[in-house]
Amino acid sequence: MAANDHQADGACTQPAKQSRWKSFARSRDGSTAIEFALLAIPYFMVIFAILETFVAFAAEQLVSNAVDTMSRKMRTGQITNVAGQPTYMDQTAFRREFCGEVSILIQCSEAEITTPNKLWLDVRTFSKFSDIPDTIPMNATGLDTSALQYSPGGSGSINMVRAYYHWQIITDLIRPYITPYKTTTGARLNDYLIVATAAFENEKY
């Protein structure tokens, strides 16, 4: 009799165990939290990449506007390279004025103004527009700054104002896609190189 009872208990226990496993497999308790944990990291990476791309492009537009503003002042004689004139502005003063135009997003320390590290300006005069370089000077490590100058022309001269700024990229996921410039060895830059150029002829002031 006892043996029969033991067999009956075993027969009842087996379906009960199977039922519990099936219930566990069908259970949705906590599934939302698990799915969120799996998707949160890539989701926030994409969101952050979008925001960083937006800010980088906003900074690019800001630099472009600053180039246009400084070019207009040169073109109209508000900025000249003639020492002793009230409109005279040397390289340091020009850089300080430029930094003031981009201060909303880009902060220039006094060291950055006197010794460029991220912001580089190339201000030159040419005999004709076709002489203005249309390529970005690069070397094996990045931007080649050896030929950059500050030599604005006077009344009626043809000038170029070009600005370069190294905008740091934190989300490496997007760096290859928003950095169009490469070194001479073909390597991509570690930051986003912002480039803005204005070419113009000064007025007869």
Describe, in short, the structure shown.
The protein is an alpha+beta fold and 205 residues long. It has helices at 2-26, 31-75, 91-101, 110-114, 175-178; strands spanning 119-126, 158-168, 191-201. 44% of the residues lie in helices and 15% in strands.
Q: Residue share in helices?
A: 40-55%
Uncertain ranges: none
Strand order across the biggest sheet? Answer: 1-2-3
Biggest sheet character: 3 strands, antiparallel
Number of helices: 5
DSSP strand content: 5-15%
The multimeric state of the shown protein is single chain
| N-to-C span | 121 Å
Work out the radius of gyration: 32 Å
Q: Return the string of H and E elements.
A: HHHHEEHE
The SS-based structural class is alpha+beta
Number of strands: 3
Q: What is the mean predicted local confidence, pLDDT? A: 87
Shape: elongated
Number of discrete domains: 1
Care to describe what's here?
Helix 2 (31-75) crosses helix 3 (91-101). The protein has one domain (35-201). The model has no long low-confidence stretch (mean pLDDT 87). The protein is elongated and about 95 Å long. It starts with a helix and ends with a strand. It has five helices and three strands, in the order ααααββαβ. It is of the alpha+beta class and 205 residues long. The longest helix is centred in the first third of the chain and has 45 residues, at 31-75. Strands 1-2-3 form a three-stranded antiparallel beta sheet, covered by helices on one side. The protein is 44% helix and 15% strand.
